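Appendix C reproduces, verbatim, an entry submitted by the partner laboratory led by Prof. M.T., so that reviewers can inspect both the input and the predicted structure.
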Amino acid sequence: MHTPSRRTLLRAPFAAAGAGLLAACTDSGSQSRSGPRRGAAAGEGDFVPPGPKGYVDPSGPEVRAAERKRGSGPVRMLKLTAAETTLDLGGRHVRTWAYHNQLPGPLIRVTAGDVLSLTLANRLPETTTLHSHGVRMRCDMDGVPSLTQRAIAAGADFTYRFTVSHPGTYYLHSHVGLQPDRGLYAPLIVDDPKEPLKYDKEWIVILDDWLDGVDGSTPDGVLAQLKPGMGMKAGAMAMGPGLGGHGAGKPASPHASPSHKSSGPNRVLHGSRSRLLRSEAGSVNYPLYLANGRMPAQPSMFRCRPGERIRLRLINAGSETAFRVALGGHRLTVTHTDGYPVEHKTTDALLIGMAERYDVLVTAKDGVFPLVALAEGKKGRALAVLRTDKGRTVPPVDVRPAELDREVVPARRLVPHDSVALDDREPDREMRIRVTGTMARYDWGFDHQQYDDRQRHPVRAGERVRLTLINATDMWHPMHLHGHTFAMTGLDAVGARKDTAIVLPHRKLVVDFDADNPGLWMFHCHNQYHSESGMMTILGYRK
């Protein structure tokens, strides 16, 4: 048993493409630039939109000072290209958008303390951005259009450059409109130079719900089906230029896409139900569910030897689906959630909401074992396979390991490792936000308001903030805070550090976080269809 070297990790099956890209583009730092490239997003002038008076600017001196405190290690220079492409999902070909013509996009791998210099080449027919989900970074590199940067124009390039200070399992995705419900996502792994875990191999598994390009469906067309008055029937449908909430004629969403048409079938899901989520599971009837870009009939395969210890990094890159995940014949030892370590906890299965990540350890038994991700409360599943022999047989597509119906440990029951646990300091500021909206009207928002980019929830640097989310809806929501991690507190939570957490219907989620990363930061539901309908707001640092 040993702790794998970077070379061992970079040779893992999933890592091959991204590792080669990284190796070819690594710089010792001799060519590092003094700051992020400017003007690439809009083609001229500053790349950061003007911010509101009285609040820290996303590129302000406070942001630069916080970045200097993170240090400056070796510069890792990489490039991603976003373009329209045809993908093979394991026997089914679809026309979609992706990074480097592959799904998931190539693995981006750095070491904590490195400076990541990642250039995104936009070869799409519309604007895009790149968000490093879960990474605590400088605000003007966060990738939120119209808030932290001007969106990258079609045909333009933009370089994201920031110090990556904390190890963990993260991922990259577009932050424009419903682009994440296409193929615009990729894993981002930040290695710990003093890795305390010992394991033999690593297996990265990215889960996804998929409809783009299937029988003419597009994400924007499906949103049009969901919103009353925008076309609930199959047929030609157009997506409006933005959301309500700003007043007549002004788009509310920084993510809004140009109009799209869809002639695909009706994808509105009715009657889904989840006991674990205590509500309907979702509103979108996805035709496909994928593990590492593959359908269950031709699953992604991971090979190892019996007795080897595997670090399994699970990422839910889906847009509207929670997954209940289990590995047949094995129990899972949870070591991290959302990149932060927890006291090790063994379970049979995990419920993973959109944008959540879990690291687990398993010791491989001898044989062929299905890793099954049930689309929670929906019909369908994703499948990958762990095997220790050289045979070609794979489990049937409808395999259901018994572990799926056994113990499921929720995130609130995970105990943070001492190294990342927040202290017992009392909050300096308390916020209460009501989660509002209905399935019928599809009018999701906060405090009965849809997103308005002029709204701010103010904090000041150095404060301990307690945020109480009161879910007044009949639906569950995975809530994500940019630029920070929070501790899950409240009566039945024990403080695990996360950046995305599920709030159940008619329940409260109470989290504490330290206001230690100045700027303007999005807080939103990571159900892409909810956020695009208005369930977003902004946390702003006062000057």
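The first strand starts at residue 75 and ends at 88. Additional entries are available on request from the coordinating office.
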